[in-house]
UniProtKB/TrEMBL annotation:
InterPro entries associated with the record: Arrestin-like_C (IPR014752), Arrestin-like_N (IPR011021), Arrestin_C-like (IPR011022), Arrestin_domain-protein (IPR050357), Ig_E-set (IPR014756)
Name of the protein: Arrestin C-terminal-like domain-containing protein
Pfam families registered for this protein in UniProt: Arrestin_C, Arrestin_N
Composition-biased stretches (Pro residues): 322-336
Any Gene Ontology biological process: nervous system development
Annotated organism of origin: Eleginops maclovinus
């Protein structure tokens, strides 16, 4: 090399892969065999995308610049014989896309050093590439947990006259994968023809699109698995797995000239039936815990919405004028007064107050069933009182004896599922018209209780 015996670029910690937003630091090492006149020593860091129309050509027809920074580490002067070291530091923008190398284009990042010498002297330069990795988190891709599905129906002609139909349906277990994961493919084939199909095949495909005036599509097969045939008039289900090899990520975010897509192609060799299942290849795999938490939060929010929707306003008529007011409960009939001379057990609670216009002991025909008329009463539940009669040998639904002084005939209460039970007559109020003491009023409830 003459005067320049060593001219190298080294990165700190020998690191050559960086992330957007990081700083790249390093040193420029120069070893001279004799004095060297220089105008300046400059260090440049840049990143760009270049596209060409020929395979593996570096004469770019279209370029896209991401960043280009230059610093001067030495001014005009003379470098003495020996070793010299010049440090540098650059900040990588957060919008820079991932490094990529394809047949018709590349995304390149590099550090270059220039030694500018006086006129008629030789200039020196060197460069060292580094790689940028912008991680693609599959958990941030929408609907990534859903399967990728597709279906196609193909009609074809065989034996020059006959026609047939093949229905092909296929799906993957989800839409996002990383290196080393397994793509589970499920295909269903219904051969509605009289001819057996060719072998089934599933392939992991990569399609790179280079955006120029006439876009170039570079499609290649990454991996392929093959299955059997489907006989005439039969329906078959095929399950297969594809292991994801090391691949660039699906989305080159920040690059407008190169687009990358991955998909699983499921096809039949004969007839020509094919469908595509789009998928994503990323750097950060799917987290099942995040999926369960999202499901739980979605379920909680749905339950909260249902609760709010089903919540009804208070049933009070004052707060909601649309609801009709509830009728007041009807009071029960007042018990039959008893004679002061009769011996009986005192009631356990006073009866409800009678409404105005109702007579004591008389059932009111107001459309509501009378509680006393709707229950069975045992003859031994009460002691004797005037007007209360229990026949000893009465037959069910038979005539009953009316005691003297009664206001009318008594009708027995209906019995439940048994004719042997003794029918219980109605409890009628006594007739005070034939009383021996017409000057005395009928005893009140309080008087009867006190007695």
């Amino acid at each position: 090399m003459g005067k320049l015996q060593e001219f190298n670029i080294t990165f700190d910690k020998n690191k050559d892969v960086y992330n957007p937003g990081e700083s790249i630091t390093g040193n420029v090492s120069i070893k001279l065999g004799q004095l060297l006149q220089c105008k300046a020593i400059k260090v440049n860091c840049n990143g760009f995308c270049g596209i060409t129309s020929k395979v593996n050509d570096t004469a770019w027809t279209v370029e896209e610049q991401y960043f280009n920074s230059t610093i001067s580490v030495a001014d005009k002067g003379t470098l003495k014989e020996g070793e010299h070291t010049f440090p540098f530091k650059f900040l990588i923008p957060e919008t820079a896309p991932t490094s990529f190398e394809g047949n018709y284009g590349r995304i390149i990042y590099r550090v270059r050093v220039f030694i500018d010498t006086p006129r008629f002297s030789k200039d020196y330069n060197t460069e060292k590439p580094f790689y940028l990795l912008r991680l693609l988190n599959l958990n941030e891709v929408p609907d990534i947990w859903e399967p990728s599905t597709s279906a196609v129906t193909q009609q074809f002609t065989y034996m020059l006259v006959k026609t047939g139909t093949v229905v092909l349906k296929a799906q993957t277990d989800m839409k996002g994968y990383t290196q080393g994961q397994i793509i589970k493919v499920l295909a269903q084939i219904h051969n509605q023809s009289g001819k057996s199909t060719g072998n089934m095949a599933a392939s992991l495909m990569q399609r790179v699109t280079y955006e120029t005036k006439r876009p170039t599509h570079d499609v290649r097969t990454i991996a392929e698995v093959e299955g059997g045939v489907v006989k005439a008039g039969k329906e078959s289900e095929w399950k297969e797995q594809i292991i994801v090899p090391p691949l660039p990520q699906s989305s080159l975010i920040g690059c407008e000239l190169i687009k990358m897509d991955y998909y699983v192609k499921v096809c039949l060799k004969s007839p020509d039936v094919m469908l595509m299942l789009p998928i994503h290849i990323g750097n950060i795999s799917l987290d099942k815990k995040l999926r369960s938490s999202k499901k739980a939060s979605a379920a909680c929010s749905a339950a909260a919405e249902d609760t709010q929707a089903s919540a009804s306003p208070p049933s009070d008529s004052t707060t909601n004028p649309n609801l009709p007011p509830r009728p007041a409960p009807k009071p029960g009939p007042r018990p039959t007064p008893r004679s002061r001379a009769s011996s009986h057990n005192p009631p356990s609670a006073p009866p409800a107050d009678l409404p105005q216009g109702a007579e004591g002991g008389t059932p009111m025909n107001d459309g509501f069933p009378n509680k006393r008329q709707s229950q069975l009463v045992s003859p031994n539940a009460f002691s004797y009182a005037p007007g209360l009669f229990f026949g000893g040998n009465q037959q069910h639904n038979g005539p009953s004896t009316v005691p003297p002084g009664s206001t009318g005939a008594t009708a027995p209460y209906p019995t439940e599922n048994s004719a042997s039970l003794m029918p219980t007559p109605l409890i009628l109020p006594p007739d005070y018209g034939a009383s021996a003491y017409p000057q005395e009023a009928p005893p009140s409830y309080d008087d009867s209780y006190n007695t």
